[in-house]
Write a structure and sequence with these properties.
- The longest helix is centred in the middle third of the chain and has 29 residues.
- The chain has a 7-stranded parallel sheet with strand order 3-2-1-4-5-6-7, with helices on both faces.
- The two termini are 39 Å apart.
- The protein has 285 residues and is an alpha/beta fold.
- Helices cover 47% and strands 13% of the residues.
- The model has no long low-confidence stretch (mean pLDDT 94).
- The chain has a single domain, classed as Rossmann fold (3-Layer(aba) Sandwich).
């Protein structure tokens, strides 16, 4: 039976590529974005299997209306793709409190709330798959990306715990962790900090040159990423984490090696913190 996808941020980047791939396969898709004008042409090409809906994932009313429209059209949702998000680059101190909260609203809270809106349906179906589009920045943080990575670290922690809760109910969770792909992450949609503090320039400027200088030249192909996501959804044993791009794997391996080295160096100090005579067991039982 063909699947019904619900894809946020479907107007560009990974969302657009996945929507095109899903529809070309003969499956159905709810195409959700803040503005639907970029989705209308695609929806008209597939009038029976595509539905364009306006959705700001941070808006509770918009989320409810989008889910209701999806159910009126298709009656169910099999795959939720939480792809809508926003990048940011700058030192933490340079962002305003409003910007910090806005980053978390779209990258974390919006995905969580939409997931919670659809979980009752998936529990009733005893099936479903949630794809949370994170980033290699959900595993590895660095100066200049602290705010963005904080939002993705939060999404990863939510996803990992959620997987344990819903797997017995027939629902899968996969975290998608791309490296550098040719999307709008490095473009005008990227959040710039409200302030500029010269003391941080030696750390932030090289990252800024890399990010904005590589826009349109990133090695990753969003269409190939879309096919990888579909393969994960179709798998009988889907992964918790789907890392995309050799650059992402390389960065993670560097962090893992450094992490292992540091943990080993400080392990004796860290382990010697229990009350004397207490038997230490695994957290969670």
């Amino acid at each position: 039976m063909s699947k019904i996808y619900f894809i946020t941020g479907a107007s560009s980047g990974f969302g657009r590529a996945l929507a095109e791939a899903v529809l070309a396969r003969g499956e159905s898709a709810v195409l959700a974005a803040r503005r639907t004008d970029a989705l209308q042409e695609l929806a008209k090409r597939y009038p029976q299997t595509a539905l364009a809906v306006a959705l700001d994932v941070t808006d509770e009313t918009a989320r409810r209306h989008a889910v209701e429209a999806a159910l009126r059209k298709f009656g169910r949702v099999d795959v939720l793709v939480n792809n809508a998000g926003q990048g940011s680059l700058g030192a933490m101190e340079e962002f305003s409190s409003a910007q910090i909260r806005a980053q978390m609203e779209v990258n974390f809270f919006g995905a969580v709330e939409l997931t919670l809106a659809l979980l009752p349906l998936m529990r009733e179906q005893k099936s479903g798959h949630i794809l949370n589009v994170s980033s290699i920045g959900g595993l590895v943080s660095m100066g200049g990306f602290a705010l963005y990575c904080a939002s993705k670290f939060a999404l990863e922690g939510f996803s990992e715990g959620l997987r344990d809760e819903v797997k017995p109910l027939g629902i899968h969770v996969t975290i998608v962790e791309p490296g550098a792909f040719r999307t709008e992450f490095s473009g005008d949609a990227n959040m710039r900090p409200q302030n500029s503090i010269g003391d941080y320039e030696p750390v932030v400027e090289p990252i800024r040159q890399y990010l904005y200088g590589s826009n349109g030249k990133q090695p990753g192909d969003p269409h190939k990423a879309a096919l990888a996501m579909i393969e994960a959804v179709e798998s009988d044993d889907p992964p918790l984490r789907l890392m995309l791009g050799a650059d992402a794997y390389g960065l993670w391996e560097e962090k893992r090696a450094a992490l292992d080295e540091e943990l080993a160096k400080w392990r004796a100090v860290g382990e010697n913190t229990a009350f004397e005579g207490v038997e230490v067991g695994a957290i969670g039982g």
